[in-house]
Design brief:
- By secondary structure, this protein is α/β, with parallel strands linked by helices.
- 29% of the residues lie in helices and 14% in strands.
- The strands form four sheets. Strands 5-4-1-13-14-15 form a six-stranded parallel β-sheet, sandwiched between helices.
- α6 (185-197) packs across α7 and α8 (266-282) crosses α9.
């Protein structure tokens, strides 16, 4: 994997912030909130108890947020404005798209790949999502399958061993973007391996293995997530695990991720931190906000990621440290707005685990092996939350108490 130190990432200048007109001008908060969604606020489409009451405490009499608040999810199947509208409906408070960080949101800064021919994998309006992030030439897994129908051979009933004329006009894939788990895993796994083996042009197998393979950028590393079922469901991390092992088994080489974004990657928390500071600046408290609270239900993503980011903040170059934690993030050509180093030096990111989702006190010992491959081995201390709360309402109780805020 190609990695970048946070020092290089932070040396870029801060762009002019957008205005957050939807936030209240009420002052006093010295902290910001980063909410996970699935397992914290909802289970599938069912809003969890006390959630609406919780958010009524975070807004003023006009329904405007009085505490800088973001929703940081590993979901990748919607555009940000769609997720904001969904949250508004769930929470009975107005949520703006600039308060939403999806798993794929940091890819807007990965400008090196925006002009390359990109294969997009996932669910939802993947083409629209990719274009909203800056990718100008995209193709979907379904379009690749239709161009090379003989490659999709698992479904015997619908197998079509024919040649398509469109293959003559097929533009080689230059980068693979994995937003989230696809619907037909067997088709996607087969075609992804085909593209990796053929340098993005699956018209015939090369005489020798092409390695390193074409770039892969993956969003959302959750092995499991909590929906309506009483047991966790496979997430995109499970799909990535299949892809990694299939490629290894076939080639005897490790699959290389050019970038991993989404939680627990520190780059996602840094992106969220930037947005929190924009909100704080708009309401005139930018120099007061010193603490971020990341509220989640998944030890391997929400808690581990927040603790990794806090470790970075402790070792931030503005504090004089020359040591940096591992950062699974895009290469040095990332562009976009940045937070200046002095803004970060004295900040803290604290993790709050709620018991409404994946949390299970009887299975904590097994959680370490659930972390993404490229984040192993895991320091056991980094999967321990700073606080544990019964639910999101009690999490806010803890935070308000610690911050002496009402």
């Amino acid at each position: 994997m190609i990695l970048i130190s946070m020092r290089a990432f932070l040396l870029k200048r801060v762009g002019p912030p957008k205005l957050f007109r939807y936030i209240s001008t009420v002052k006093g908060a010295t902290f910001g909130l980063l909410f996970d969604i699935d397992g914290v606020l909802v289970r599938s489409n069912r809003v969890l108890p006390s959630v609406k009451e919780t958010f009524s405490r975070l807004v003023d009499s006009k329904g405007k947020f009085r505490v800088p608040t973001l929703f940081v999810t590993n979901a990748g199947n919607k555009l940000r404005h769609q997720k904001a509208a969904q949250l508004t409906n769930w929470l009975d408070v107005e949520v703006n798209e600039d308060q939403v960080v999806m798993a794929h949101s940091p890819l807007s800064m990965l400008t090196t790949y925006h002009q390359k021919h990109a294969l997009i994998s996932g669910q939802g309006p993947v083409e629209d999502i990719a274009k909203s992030l800056g990718f100008s030439s995209v193709i979907t897994m379904e379009q690749v399958r239709d161009t090379f129908p003989s490659l999709d051979a698992v479904d015997h009933e619908h197998y079509r061993p024919v040649l398509s004329e469109s293959r003559h006009h097929f533009k080689p894939i230059e980068v693979i973007i994995l937003f989230g788990e696809p619907v037909r895993w067997e088709t996607s796994l087969q075609l992804l391996v085909d593209l990796l083996l053929t340098n993005g042009m699956p018209t015939g197998l090369p005489s020798e293995l092409i390695y390193p393979h074409i770039p892969i950028i993956a969003c959302n590393m959750d092995l499991q997530w909590m929906a309506e079922a009483n047991m966790p469901r496979f997430g995109h991390g499970a799909f990535l695990l299949c892809l990694e092992n299939l490629y290894k088994k076939i080639t005897n080489r490790d699959l290389i991720y050019t970038a991993l974004v989404g939680k627990p990657s520190e780059i996602t928390y840094h992106h969220a931190h930037r947005l929190i500071m924009r909100q704080a600046e708009e309401i005139g408290i930018v120099n007061q906000v010193k603490t971020l609270y990341a509220i989640g239900d998944n030890i391997n993503t929400d808690i581990y990621g927040a603790n990794l980011y806090n470790q970075y903040l402790i070792k931030n170059p503005s504090n004089g440290s020359k040591s940096f934690p591992r950062v699974s993030c895009p290469i040095e050509t990332m562009q976009g707005d940045r937070i200046k180093d002095p803004e970060l030096g004295s900040h803290t990111c604290l993790s709050v685990l709620v018991e409404t989702g994946l949390f299970s006190p009887d299975h904590q010992a097994s959680f370490m092996s659930h972390s993404p491959r490229d984040f192993l081995p895991v320091d056991e201390g980094l999967i321990k939350p700073n606080f544990i709360a019964k639910d999101v309402y009690h999490a806010i109780d803890v935070i308000f108490s610690k911050q002496s805020y009402n």
